[in-house]
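Re: the multi-chain job from yesterday

Posting the exact lines I submitted so nobody has to dig through the queue logs.
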Amino acid sequence: MIAPVQTPRRAFAIGAPILQLDSISLRFGGVQALTNVSFNVLEHEVRAIIGPNGAGKSSMLNVINGVYVPQEGAISFGGEQLKGMTPTRAAHLGIARTFQNIALFRGMSVLDNIMAGRTLRSRASFLEVALQLPRARREETENREAAEEIIEFLEIEHIRKTPVARLPYGLQKRVELGRALAAEPKVLLLDEPMAGMNIEEKQDMCRFILDVNDHYGTTVVLIEHDMGVVMDLSDRVVVLDYGKKIGDGTPDEVRSNQRVIDAYLGVAH
Amino acid sequence: MLDLLFFIEVLVGGLLAGIMYSLVALGFVLIYKASGVFNFAQGAMVFFAVLSFVGFMELGLPFWAALPVTVGLMVLVGMATERFVLRPLVNQNENTLLMATIGLAFVIEGTAQAAWGVEVRRLDLGVRDEPIGWLMDEVGILISQLDIAAGVVAGIMVAALALLFSRTKVGRGLRAVADDHAAALSIGIPLKHIWMLVWATAGIVALVAGMLWGARSGVQFALIGVALKALPVLIIGGFTSVPGVIVAGLIVGAIEKTTEVYIGPYFGGGIEGWSPYMLAVLFLMYRAEGLFGEKIIRRV
Amino acid sequence: MACDTVDTFPQLLLRHAKERGGRPAIREKRRGIWHTLTWRDLADEAEALACALSARGVQRGARVAVLGDNRPRLYTAICAAHWLGAIVVPLYQDAAAAELTLPLQSAEVTHVFAENQEQVDKLLEILPLCPSVRCIVYDKDRGMRHYQQPQLVSYAAFLAQGHALKGSRSDVLRAEAGRAAGQDAAFLFFTSGTTGEAKGVVATHAALIDRARVAAEIDGLTDVDVTIAYLPPGWIGQNVCGYVQPMVVGHCVCCPESSETLIADMREIGPTCFLATPRVLEALLTQVSMRLDDAGDFNRALYRRSIAVAQRVGARILARGAVSMLDRLAYLAYDLLIYGPLRDVLGLSKVRVAYAAGDALAPDLLMFFRSLGINLKQLYGSTETGFFVAMPRDGRVKPDTVGQAAEGVELKFTAEREILVRSPGLFAAYHRDAERTAEAKSADGWFNTGDIGYVDEDGHLRIVDRAVHVGALSDGTPYAPKVLENKLKFVPYIKEAVAFGHGRDMVCMLIDIDAAAVSRWADKRGITYTGHADLASRDEVYELIAGCIATVNRELALDPVLARCQLRRFSILHKELSADDGLLTRTGKLRRGAIAERYGELVDAMYAGHSDSAGVDGSPRRKIRDAQTVAPAGSRRAA
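And the result, structure tokens for all chains:
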């Protein structure tokens, strides 16, 4: 369905594990969202988390991002054991994300949204900004340049000044990706980046994700519903079902895993 | 000719008062934008700020020392409010937050009066509330020096804040927080800093507004009522729009003074007090989002 | 200027670098900022590129292709190739890989400048079929990191190589630039042709430069003019406007950031000279109409009144004709309120002269722009004729003509009214096709244009249509599809219209709706639809289009000849006509043969009187509707 991608050689070779999740269990009251899930993410790879609805995919992403704190298990990032992950902490570590139901700053322009994504890349204090001291002005220029690079990369020059609330869905998704990229993250978490898109928009998004991975070497962790997309896009896939890991491996391995077929592939969705 | 001059006089007087309304309303907008709270205590903060300023001067501090001290105090009050009132209530619904600010208003009022007493004081900023001489002689228009000075100060303040919040990273952070908390956190915008910043700024705005109004009508409990004037401004301008409240402040000021002079006599005067509210009601009926407020658009 | 003897591009480039070295030659908006390349910069970069090209074996007469959008580097590449006496083969950037094979093969292109990964991918795909291609220089390196093909080199590396070589080769290169002669071939254009087969048209330096000089003189172009490059670089028109004309006059050409930002970029840069195809102008009109639909009642009423005034007097004011004081005042007032802001919204506020070329422009559309105070003119010319054959002069623009023959052009007509042209701007030959060259061009230099036309009483050339399209209905009524189609295309809801009628008893139409305009119309009325095909088959939309056609029919009824060509039946296409399907040329002209073939069944059903036709490849049935016609003015009186 999505045109096969010819990658003769990767610009950034897949490296050591950058993110390690050990025996993660997460409960909401009596509901067991994740049970003893372990997997790792290697540097520069595209890693997918798939599973039927309610399998705990989004919960998994929210655990990585620090929105939810798991009752059991450990997360390490870049070899360092992390305790008490919070979204702010994740952002500082270089983990950026997008949301399933687009969470853009709707009243702001595309450019401002992407510039906002640069928050952690600037050092100037409030006073420096308020008084427009040299450092604040220099940073503003640098941030604008970085934002423009992303705008060019994502081919959204024509909407740079448009308030995001006025954009169609597909473009909003792209802007959200842009905002996440603006932080120059090491790891990019994408929560159903292609949900609700038409085929053309999906192809565009696929291309952008691969380009991001290829051009910036960003490690990508994505949740996706659409099997075709996942298989073409990812280097390795984790399959969750009812909060448990039932498969892990290359797209081909996963495709031929009987448990996965029973739980997911066999079920029409 | 005379009529026209008189009209200009009334209009300018109205616009100058209007820019001061804008300033007060700006305090509301800042907090509303950043945290979605209608800060009922804004009026109390105005009162508290200027009362403290006068109080410090009475304690013997000169003007230029009292000013930074009061600014510091207001920053502390703002930050404390964020830390001890709003942060514990994070993720509560709007009504809860509103009730909290109402409570806060009483606490601040009480503290102010307990600390500095209840009698009316005069605040002398060194500018007299008298018409400008040459303007009166040459053109024949009566415009108060104090009004002009207050208008200029308020104008500068409003312009500086508007620029800060529309053109800089701080402003972007503020608007981002206002739009989507979760997203703002995910890109590392320090929510707590932004809130503190906003409350501190609102404190400073309250001080400036209090000083300007206080110089005009005396430093007294009635200053709290200034905040009520901000309400029609907010409705007309939109609760979330900085340029909106600036324009709306000017409109309210102009309408209030001109209607008072030209239409007032038919009603036996005193319509100044309610004409802005009439306008606000009209806005609520026909353009509920205000002049530049965000239209609530839902895309399918 | 007229006696200027410099007639090659490299010499012109060197002259500009000397005479106006610090003035802008090319501007480009990149990452939100305009960057300027001065004439000196351009000459420097072209020289370095030429060094690198020559080091890689490009010699006089070699063929160098350019494939990409309008970017400064595309133009520097053309400069460099011309510098070495190579022949430039401009390709259409949106052509599919298979379409590129023929030009690359037949021209035996050795070096290609490609814009980006997308273009490189297409080239690599057909590389086995085009063994002559030795070197591909790509501009944007995004996604190119892991390409290992030995033919590939990045523009930046290529340029650096050239700069390194420049010191040692400078003299050789200057000599090379001096060796060029006007009669050398400069470009090899592959015209897509409405009939299908692509032909390579060889144009010399002298021919193009001569025509551009004549045009510059007629419209008084100088080096402070500014133009914008946004049309397909594979088309001669874009090369004339973006390369030949600036080279002749020394003015600046601007490259917009992307095709989507064109209008915003135009508003920033304020082009004074603007070339458009009818398709672009139609799109602009549609935009105006859509904006208007969103405006309030008051604004709409104001706009209508203003347009009425504009249509009554605007064109006359532009032509400096006699207009009453009152009208003049009204026009002035509306200019402040409506026309001025409208010109600004379209990015045309500084335009001194605008040209429509590439296809016939509907007179209504021409007049619409002229009445707004935009000096739009219809040009006549083709790839073979060096673009400028006839052009209207300021103050003497007639909407349904293409103006007088340009200086140096001789016109002649055959008995069938086919236009023959002799001009210094004529092409040299069809590439490696002596037979076709001889067919099209006589020994004494007359070129058969294939267009039917005549010269009217004022000496203006009037074009009827392509000779192969002009025909007659079965009752003998003369029939030219273009006139009918252009009337319909003036309607904002209609993007393309294809008329059928030659040898038939009535005129039927295939309609391609303007998706943006119609979907907005539908949204306003709360009509729900799932996509283009669904929208195009809605009864409401059929009614909308039927209404538009009825209006056009009323207009046609006023003309004694056209009255009998009123549109009787029509059907709306489910899918847009597109160049990718081979139904349009890359410049947006209809390929009637291909369309008739693709939709043959539907057309037959229209003539057979059916009310629908089964779709091809399982697509839904297409509806066919009758249009309301009006009795011709004459017969009505009789009745």
